[in-house]
Fold:
Amino acid sequence: MTSSGPAVVAVQPARARALTHGPRHHFFGYYGISPWNASERLYACLESNFHDRMPLAGERATIGVVGLSDAEPGDFRPLATTAAWNLQQGAMIHWLPTEPETTLVFNDLDAATGVFHPVVLNVETGAKRDVPAPVGIGAVAADGRWALGLDYARLHAQRPVVGYAGARDRTAGVLCPDDDGVWRIDLHTGATDLVLSHAAALGLVPAPAMAHERPVFFNHTLYNPSGGRFLVFLRYFRQGELDSAVYTADADGSNARCIVPWGNKPSHFDWFSDSEVMVTVSHPNGDRRYLLIRDEAGQGWETARVLGNPEAGVLSTEGHPTFSPDRRCFVFDAPADVDGTRPLRLFDMKAGEERVLDWFYAAAQFKGDIRCDLHPRWNRSGTLASVDSVHAGDRQVYVVPAP
Structure:
């Protein structure tokens, strides 16, 4: 069933241009991953028949591309389908770094085995290869061979909005598994190694007693630019609210450290360089802080640089930040105002200033698990940001100039 939501547009973005259109819904999902191929001729995204509820087990969305050149303009071109998707993070689509012009990698569900796994797809020839790994990807390294994977069945059981329906949670009932966690996947062979278990991470630093009494789960894997280290959140629900700690480790799981300890409500992130990572945390006064943390032994959030001027209202609200390719700035969304409008903002790292690029409206029904965060992503040349938006009632992809 197709659901388009309300027809009234409360706020029409001033600068945004639609890349996709109805009657079906289109979205990319998460932030910090570029949906553009190397030449910026194609934009990868998902297509679905609904967006006002969570996907059920076995329901499939379509993977495809939108042509952006004069030779291939405008319409969504379907390429494959997937049963491993959600509205917040999509299917974790990446352009394969070794073949960024032609090849996608994303998640799917093997109906025969009931296991999530990566798929490699050539968008020109249609050639598709199932990677025989028992977990779905969350991040892909710069060398295009290695990926980080999570058990999306456990993730769905603990936090459905970012998990996938349809697979058995093999660690159900285990509070802190020592045989599950962050997996390293060889995208060539499918060989999969556990590089950081839940138990190992929880034991690295002191944790609240409740962290040992509730199921913990990993979320949000991301390699640094070179692929030599990665970041991940370990989380549990404490009286209905997430408590989290942020960890980094070498690609093989060695030299793991906690860079943001429990109790500080870390939420969103991006790598600034191979040795610096930005993470948002809470301040006791209720404001958010964007911290630039040195990922080095003996360093941590206590010595981190606070970006902006939160006391003056610059970078004082939550958002999904993603750095431009040249690292001169980052774009981020922010919580909706009382009238339902949400700003897309840009922060200039050198000037220390932020400004609004555009505003997007979301009707009151789009909250909770079916919310539509803007989740901004950069094009490869650093001139455009793309977002998912429901301001017109349906869910579509838009681009905004972001100089």
